[in-house]
Amino acid sequence: MKVTSSDIVISAVKPDQYPNTPIPEFALAGRSNVGKSSFINKMINRKNLARTSSKPGKTQTLNFYIINEALHFVDVPGYGYAKVSKTERDAWGRMIETYFTSRDQLRAALLIVDLRHPPTKDDIAMYEFLKHYDLPRIVIATKADKIPKGKWQKHLKVTRQTLNMEKEDELLLFSGETGEGKEQAWGVLKKYM
Ligand code: GDP
């Protein structure tokens, strides 16, 4: 897809701040530092619109980005960062639950995982959460540039098996570094728009 415009709309902490428009939305979920911001930046050819985090777990806001006036990417704060208090974790849980269960504009969740390693317990829990609420989900295994091409298929298989993915759910390979998988990802997103 040719991206001609992109901008941040709002960093929201509560639902009344979510953009009040019918624009289709894709939310990115994943572990802190897995590469969510890099995914957004690469998809829209921007170096730094989505903030790539030096302090994982710090952003506790839902960041809405608008692309071509036609869709929103929503960067969701990452999970699995150890140095987060229980209070913060609970607040995170409430925010995620509210967003994912009540947002009509949400077309699909993009679950970002690290292709190099089997999905973590938290990744599995997130996938199960999305399944539980019957939300369309697309799993994106990123950082593909960090392993040799010859091993990609083997790693994708481990990802699919560890998450116990439904057969019909899409699993895409990606690299926020090289842009590998970008056009394929746009192709899949278009089907949901
Ligand atoms: P976020 O916390 O999920 O938004 O993760 P970021 O996008 O901030 O990425 C965390 C770190 O991983 C940064 O240092 C990125 O440069 C790096 N990173 C993200 N995606 C990739 C990728 O596909 N390949 C490589 N080599 N590094 C990546």
UniProtKB/TrEMBL annotation:
Q: Entry's SUPFAM superfamilies?
A: P-loop containing nucleoside triphosphate hydrolases
Please list the GO biological process terms of this entry.
division septum assembly
- Cofactor(s) required, per the database record: Mg(2+)
Q: GO molecular function: any one?
A: metal ion binding
Q: Which UniProt keywords apply?
A: Cell cycle, Cell division, GTP-binding, Magnesium, Metal-binding, Nucleotide-binding, Septation
Q: Which terms in the GO cellular component ontology are assigned?
A: cytosol
Pfam families, A to Z: MMR_HSR1
- Residues forming the EngB-type G domain are 22-193
| Keyword Transmembrane (UniProt) | no
Any keyword Hydrolase? no
PANTHER family (alphabetical): ENGB-TYPE G DOMAIN-CONTAINING PROTEIN, MSS1/TRME-RELATED GTP-BINDING PROTEIN
Q: What does this protein do?
A: Necessary for normal cell division and for the maintenance of normal septation.
Family classification: Belongs to the TRAFAC class TrmE-Era-EngA-EngB-Septin-like GTPase superfamily. EngB GTPase family.
Instruction: Supply the name of the protein.
Output: Probable GTP-binding protein EngB
Organism expressing this protein natively: Peribacillus simplex
The gene coding this protein: engB
